[in-house]
Design goal:
Elements (H helix, E strand, L loop, with lengths): L1 E6 L8 E8 L8 H16 L5 E6 L3 H5 L4 E9 L2 E8 L4
Parallel strand pairs: 2-3
Antiparallel strand pairs: 1-2, 3-5, 4-5
């Protein structure tokens, strides 16, 4: 019904990442996306506690991610023809 990737920090990106966050259309409206992102944040914070979490968010979902503690960075850009914004969730440490 929903899917999210938790990505470790690496050579190309020193932050952890949440990627490919999707909820099937027929499952939307049940807060599955919110719960999934919360679990992804908790997982990355537990596994890599001193590392920020970065996402590439679709611009129309920016307020959703802000409500979960993400901060918008930089300017809007196109990814696959869709406006996106880089966002960051600061490490707890």
């Amino acid at each position: 019904m929903a899917y999210l990737r938790c990505i470790a920090p690496g050579r190309d990106c020193p932050d952890t990442q949440l990627g490919r966050i999707v909820v099937r259309p027929e499952a939307r409206g049940r807060n599955l996306g919110r719960e999934l992102v919360k679990r992804g944040i908790a997982h990355n914070q537990a596994r890599w506690p001193n590392t920020d979490i970065r996402i590439s968010a679709q611009s129309h979902l920016q307020d959703f991610y802000v409500s979960l503690g993400f901060i918008a960075e930089g300017t809007e850009y196109l990814e696959d023809g869709i406006p996106h914004r880089r966002m960051r969730h600061k490490a707890r440490g």
